[in-house]
Automatic annotation (TrEMBL):
It holds the Pfam family Amidase. It is an enzyme of class 6 (ligase). GO terms for cellular component: glutamyl-tRNA(Gln) amidotransferase complex. NCBIfam families: gatA. Its EC number is 6.3.5.7. This is Glutamyl-tRNA(Gln) amidotransferase subunit A.
Length: 453
């Protein structure tokens, strides 16, 4: 894999940092333990992995795709990082991402875009485009992403790979640099559903260092993926979300999705249509909640505690802070901080953030009503296939639409994944099938996705 990175990453640019020595050393330790007759630390011991550059690593820089953190080496490992190491997984390096995970194309990285291995003129999705591109380019067999509004699933869909957003609280956020704390969730990326399940069981589970971590065993996702592999979905009820179609969806995406739904029926699933009327309001609610929480979380980048400090012409602490934030943050991050600061300001809180939280409750209820009738919900992961680099950079609204289908699961906190479902007839590019399950029922979607794949 290091050889493959050497060969193609100059073009793909999936990695911000490759740790050749550290990876070889970690691999050597696994070999030595096996040679000494010790049992492998996990089923994935010795398997290489690409880690999104938003998880802290004590031996590698962690930049979050931002100039603000250029060169910063954290003093500690994230819980996800620690669990990977303890499982004997070999971390190849850190992957490119939209700055602080804000974006849908990886074009907001301060270090240049990542290219989609399917077509180098197109985006690999975002914010975790680096992780998904590394899988699609065969630079790594496993990767880790984070999904606040779709940043694991949407890159998975447009690169023809598997991406899983576990139930909120299912994977520790300790050491995951915060964007929107009530939505952020780390999760596995892979080329097969079973590989994702194996990785999910390594990183998942309770962590006392994260107060929102769920204190319960990891859902049995590996067993479910193996069960699904038999290809029998008899007795499984699948709901097709009516709201995810129509205007804005490419015909090729809808046709691939339709074929996937028919295939689920052939595997024995009972397919029904369900309506989730409030999903239409998920995108606007998200774009109040996420920027609000981001404006608060990113206040910590003050030029004092982490990374960059611009003090030229700064005569006071306030000036140093303001110069640092001016120089360190890119345009999208600044846009979100301003939107969020406005939405949270006195007199507007109830009208914006409070209202969005109410919409969030309605979306939770839509899911509850749907899951009374069906075991899982399905939808396209994205309305379109990978768009061209540069096509949406000047149009934030068009960029935000990439997450139309993924955001409801973040707002409600339930589990969702994307599994490849063939190529679009429009342009020959990959399409993703999204499967959603209730909170802590992650295994349901793994079973269905494994049967499908
Ligand atoms: N594209 C969405 C955004 O820009 C989602 C990002 C994410 O999931 N981290 O906020």
């Amino acid at each position: 894999h290091l050889g493959r990175i050497e060969q193609v990453d100059g073009t793909v640019h999936a990695f911000l940092h490759v740790d050749t020595d550290g990876a070889l050393e970690a691999a050597r330790r696994v070999d030595e333990a096996l040679a000494a007759g010790e049992p492998p630390a996990s089923p994935l011991a010795g398997v290489p992995l690409a880690l999104k550059d938003v998880f802290t690593t004590s031996d590698m820089p962690t930049t979050c795709g931002s100039k603000m953190l250029a060169g910063w080496i954290p003093p500690y490992d994230a819980t996800v990082t620690r669990r990977l190491r303890e499982a004997g997984i070999v971390i190849l390096g850190k992957t490119n991402m939209d700055e602080f995970a804000m974006g849908s194309s990886t074009e907001n990285s301060a270090y240049g875009p990542t290219r989609n291995p399917w077509d180098l003129d197109r985006i690999p999705g975002g914010s975790g485009g680096g992780s998904s591109a590394s899988l699609a380019a065969f630079e790594a067999p496993l990767a880790i992403g984070t999904d606040t509004g779709g940043s694991i699933r949407q890159p998975g869909a447009v690169t023809g790979t598997v991406g899983v957003k576990p139930t909120y609280g299912g994977v520790s956020r300790y050491g995951l640099v915060a964007f929107s704390s009530s939505l952020d969730q780390g999760g596995p990326c892979a080329r097969t559903v079973l590989d994702a399940a194996l990785l999910h069981e390594v990183i998942g589970g309770h962590d006392p260092l994260d107060s929102t971590s769920i204190d319960a065993p990891v859902p049995p996702v590996v067993a479910a993926a193996r069960e699904g592999a038999s290809g029998d979905l008899t007795g499984v009820r699948v709901g097709v979300v009516r709201e995810f179609s129509g205007e804005g969806y490419q015909p090729g995406v809808l046709a691939a999705f339709q074929r996937a739904v028919e295939q689920l029926g052939r595997l024995g699933a009972e397919v029904v249509e369900v309506s989730c009327p409030h999903f239409d309001y998920a995108l606007p609610a998200y774009y109040l909640i996420a920027p609000s929480e981001c404006s608060s979380n990113l206040a910590r980048f003050d030029g004092m505690r982490y990374g960059l400090r611009s003090r030229e012409n700064g005569h006071s602490a306030e000036e140093v802070m303001s110069l640092t934030r001016e120089a360190g943050f890119g345009p999208e991050v600044k846009r979100r901080i301003m939107l969020g600061t406005y939405a949270l300001s006195a007199g507007y809180y109830d009208a914006y953030y409070g209202q969005a939280q109410k919409v969030r409750t309605l979306i939770v209820r839509d899911f509850e009503a749907a899951f009374d009738r069906v075991d899982v919900l399905v939808a396209p992961t994205t309305p379109t296939t990978a768009f061209r680099i540069g096509e949406r950079v000047d149009d934030p609204m068009a960029m935000y639409l990439a997450d139309l289908c993924t955001i409801p699961a973040n707002l409600a906190g339930n589990a969702a994944l994307s599994v490849p479902c063939g190529l679009s007839e429009d342009d020959g590019l990959p399409v993703g099938l999204q499967v959603m399950a209730p909170a802590m029922e992650d295994h349901r979607m793994y079973r269905v996705a494994a049967a499908y794949q």
